[in-house]
Structure formats: C-alpha cells, structure tokens
Amino acid sequence: MEFLSDFGVEPILLLAQIINFVILLFILQRFLYKPLLKVLEERKKKIETSMRQSDEIQKKFDEVGEKQQEILDKAKSESSSIIENAKKEAKALSDQIQTGASLQAEETMKRTKEALELEREKMVAEARKQLGVVVATAAEKIIEKSLSNSDKERFVAAAVKEIENEKK
Fold first, then answer.
1. What DSSP string runs through 70-88?
2. Cα angle at 157 between 152 and 159, to 5 degrees?
3. Full residue range of the structural domain in which residue 109 is found
4. Is residue 144 a contact partner of residue 156, using CB atoms and an 8 Å limit?
5. Which of 19, 95, 120, 136 is most buried, judged by most C-beta within 10 A?
C-alpha cells in the first residue's frame, strides 16, 4: 500500500470518502432520485394520455370533417336536382300558358267571326226586309195607279210568296 502513499492517497481517507459517497448515493437515491423518477414517470403517463386523447380528437375531427363534406355534397346534389326540377316545371308551365293563350286567342277569334257573321246575316235580313217593304210600298203605289183590284191582289200574293221563299 505504499505505492498509494507515493501518489498521495491515504487509504483511510479514501475509505471514508467511499463510505461517504455510498451514504450520499443511498440518500440521494431514496429521497431525490426515486421521487424524481416518479414525477417523471407521472409526466410521461400524462403526456402519453394527452397524445392518445389528441389522436382520438384528431380522428373524431377527421370523421366530422368527412361527414360534413358528405352532407355538403348531398346538399349540393339535392339543390341541383331541386333547381333542375324547378326549371322543368317552369318550362312546362310556360308551355302550358302559351298553349292556353293561343287556344284562348283562337277561341276568341272564332267567337268574334261567328258574332260578325250573325250580325252580317241580321243586317242582310233587315236590309231585305226593309227593301221588301220599300219595294212593296213602291209597287203598291204603282199598282194602285195602273192596275185593277184583281191584278193587285194577284201581284200582292205573288210578292208575299216570293218574300216567304227568300226567308226560307
């Protein structure tokens, strides 16, 4: 052990330092290292739990995003079909209105033509009637002056038959 002394190491002091070191190591391990490891382990578990929860939240967020996109796509397709149906209904209604309007216009023109024809026929009949009266009056005056009573009666009867034939 002399060679230790040559280097300036004293064995008793070295042994005391080793014992002090072991005691210090034991105290540090018991009161500092174990509680510190325990705190670190608890933090590690909290971090792992937070990470798992974060992953679950991210998955749920992704699912909600997908569902939201599906709902939006469905709403877009429904709105497109509603707009398309509305356009078809508007076109059908427009066609129906146009058809109805042209039918109504044709019916109105037909009734107007019929009314005009009836009015014309009435006017012609009235004109014939008045013409007959005028002719009869003129003929009566002419006949009174130039014909005998029997000739007058014969002409009047012939005129009446002729007027009746015209009315038919």
1. HHHHHHHHHHHHHHHHHHH
2. 95
3. 2-167
4. no
5. 136
d(CA 112, CA 106): 10
Q: How confident is the model at residue 94, as a pLDDT?
A: 92
Q: Which two tokens stand for residue 80?
A: 């497109």
Q: What is the pLDDT of residues 51-102, one digit of tens each?
A: 999 999 999 999 999 999 999 999 999 999 999 999 999 999 999 999 999 9
Within 8 A by CB and 6+ apart from 1, the residues are: 11
* Total domains, the chain: 1
Phi, psi of 10 (to 5 degrees): -105, 125
Q: Are 132 and 162 in contact (CB under 8 A)?
A: no
Closest CA to 141 of 84, 133, 49, 165: 133
Length of the chain in residues, anyone? 168
Distance CA 106, CA 102 (A): 6
> pLDDT band for position 3 (50/70/90)?
low
- State pLDDT tens for residues 140-156: 777 666 666 777 778 77
